[in-house]
Amino acid sequence: MNGVVQGGWEFVIAAYTITGLAFVIYAISLFARLKELKKHD
Amino acid sequence: MKSKVPYIFLAVGAALLLFGSYWGLFIAPAEQYMGNVQRIMYVHVPSAWSWMLAILWAFGCAIAFLFTSNMKWDSRMEAGVEVGILLAFLLCCQGAIWAKPTWGVWWDWDPRLTSVAVLLVASLGIMALRSFVDDPVRRAIWSAVATIIASVDLPIVYFSVKWWNSLHQQQSSPNTVSSAFYIPLRVNAFGVLFLMIGFIWLRTRVAALKLRQETAIPHTYEEAGELA
Fold this sequence. Notes:
With 41 residues, chain A is mainly alpha-helical. Chain A has one domain.
């Protein structure tokens, strides 16, 4: 025990994965909603 | 050309975020005490900054709507609130993942975390309110007022770490962060900012198109989609 957080890559990978997935899924949902609305416009 | 601008923002934002994240993950050194876990900062802090800007944007649009009664501000406000929800959700997830190895808990009812959670729930409430009200004018007025009330929490979020004894660290600046850390931090800050602008722009078009189909209010989604 030296006060330094050991390892931790699993937390880093989780944080970056959630961030990337959230942006991609939101972008896809926006494109889909826009396409659908334009079709009926 | 104007219709392509938000896509350009999204492409540039994604490229910056990929580049900054690569730098933060593989080039920047590990922090002295937190080790590799500190690399979460390169996505957590930019998400926080852009989230605050999204809420500020929604607040400005709510004020503008109440003064002008122009529905384009309502569409812009809706976009700001929804993108704010996305960023606040990310902020809470990234923060919890960072908290576990450093604080020993996923969540703590600390002033900073609690005030962010309050604003996230308030934003969800505003979107729920919008989906319950059929009359577009009433919906716009009520949600503008709700957005202004919810935005009161924003300065509380910002100053919470100064006003109270918080587990969360105080705000960092280039003067308090080593140069090895702030280059990827800045690149990612611009990356998330560009993504946020692109998302708000496109979401405004969605809101404006829905409103037009709902009421036949004569403004085009391109007009409503202009941020400036």
